Amino acid sequence: MAAQKMSLSKAINASLRKALENDPKVVIMGEDVGKLGGVFRITDGLQKDFGEERVIDTPLAESGIVGTAIGLALRGYRPVAEIQFDGFVFPAYDQIVTQLAKMHARSLGKVKLPVVIRIPYGGGIGAVEHHSESPEALFAHVAGLKVVSPSNASDAYWMLQQAIDSDDPVIYFEPKRRYHDKSEVDTAAIPDPLHAARVARPGTDLTLAAYGPMVKVALDAAGAAAEEGKSLEVVDLRSMSPIDFDTLQRSVEKTGRLVVVHEAPVFLGTGAEIAARITERCFYHLEAPVLRVGGFHAPYPPSRLEDEYLPGLDRVLDAVDRALAY
Hints:
By secondary structure, the chain is an alpha/beta fold. The protein has helices at residues 8-22, 46-50, 62-74, 93-100, 103-106, 136-140, 153-165, 214-226, 245-255, 270-281, 306-309, 313-324, and strands at 4-7, 26-30, 55-57, 78-82, 116-121, 146-148, 170-175, 182-185, 198-201, 206-210, 232-236, 239-241, 258-265, 291-295. It has twelve helices and 14 strands. Residues 6-181 form the Transketolase-like pyrimidine-binding domain. It holds the Pfam family Transketolase_C.
C-alpha cells in the first residue's frame, strides 16, 4: 500500500489490524474494545473482522485485564491490553510493576512477557477528573518496562507494530488530543528503531525536546521563534524508557541550550532526568541551564482551567527567551 494521509487514531487501528493479520497469537483486550470499538473508536471494526476470541470485551477491572494479559503471555500469546483512560490505570499498577516488569528478571531470563498496554493519556479534550493524567514518569521509573509515545500518525503505526513484536512489556502512551491530527503513513517504509529519538526540525540556537502531545507545541514554538530570527531544533524523544540520550546530546552539543517540554508536572517529571543527564554529558557545551516546561504540581484541574494548566506556546517561548538570555 502506498503512503497515505491518515489520522493518528486511524493509524493505530491500521497497526492493530496488521498485527492481528500477521500473528494469530496477537489478541486485543479491554473495556468496550469489541462491539463499541473503544470509547475513541480506536478498535472499531476489529472484533467484527477477527472475532470475539481475539478482540475481547473485558469486565471493568483494570487489574484483571493486566493480570489476564500476563497469563496469556505466559501461554505464548501476545496480548495488547487497552486501559480506557490514563487515570484508570492505577488499579492495575501493582500487576504492572510487581509482576509484568519483574517476571523476566525473576525467572533469570527464562520467561518473556510480550505484553503491550495501550493508554490514552494527557489533557486537552475537556474531560472530567481521572481522564487527563500524564503518568508516564511513574512507569519510566520502573526497571523492566519500555515506555513510548508517538506524536504523529506514522510513528503511531510503526511504534505499535514494534511494541507488539517486542518480547518485553511495553507501555504505549497515546496522546489523545492528537488522535485526529493527520500525517503521511507509509506502511511499506523501514521505520526508525523503537527507542530512537528523531530531529523533527533542525536548528542551531537552542534544542527543544518533547514527546507525544507536546511535539506539536514545540514545533509551533520553533516556527514562531523563527519569525524573530531564532533557530530552534526540535527533538521528538518518542521514548521515555529508554531515552535516546545520544541523539539529544548531539543536538545540545550543537546548540548549547536545552528546554524540555512535557504535559506532566515538572516536579520529578521526565524532564528532571533529562536535565540531569544532559548536564552531566554536556556540561562544557551548555551556555545556559537546562530548563523545563510542564504542568503544575497540582491535581489536573476542571476542564475550564486546563488551558491555564497545560503548557502552551507562550510558556515554551518564555523558557526559550530565558535560556537565550544567558
